[in-house]
Amino acid sequence: MSCAKVFSQFEVFAAGELGCRRSWTDAEKVRIVEESYRGHRQGSVVAHRHGISRALLTQWRRAYDLGQLDGAPTAFTALEIAPDPVPLPQGAPCGAAADARVEITLANGRRLAVPADIEGGALTRLVQVLERA
């Protein structure tokens, strides 16, 4: 009868090497998240540099985007309401309304012109990206 033994490789850490569970203040989380948004594909590099997992950094990014971290950008921005648009004359082609555009001035001074019928979720994502850039 044959007896096979399977050994898995594992690493044993001494108790002193493990340390204790770290806690991060909201200010530290905001700093790390903002650092991860700079440049191209910086998330995993920043996570490794600070000794956290990419999954944790993703959670922090989500909370940051939703304004749940102190110091994160607020969900409100300045808004200027323009007067009512001039009504189209009778008999104007219906396609004229389809070409309507909305111009938005962001908090960082950038101006954004989008079609009037843009989906709300797409506009939200676009504004968030442009505010961070």
TrEMBL record:
Molecular functions per Gene Ontology: sequence-specific DNA binding; transposase activity
Pfam families attached to this UniProt entry: HTH_Tnp_1
GO biological process: DNA transposition
Database matches in InterPro entries: Transposase_8 (IPR002514), Trp_repressor/repl_initiator (IPR010921), WH-like_DNA-bd_sf (IPR036388)
Stated family: Belongs to the transposase 8 family.
Protein's UniProt name: Transposase
Organism: Cereibacter azotoformans
Phylogenetic lineage: Bacteria, Pseudomonadati, Pseudomonadota, Alphaproteobacteria, Rhodobacterales
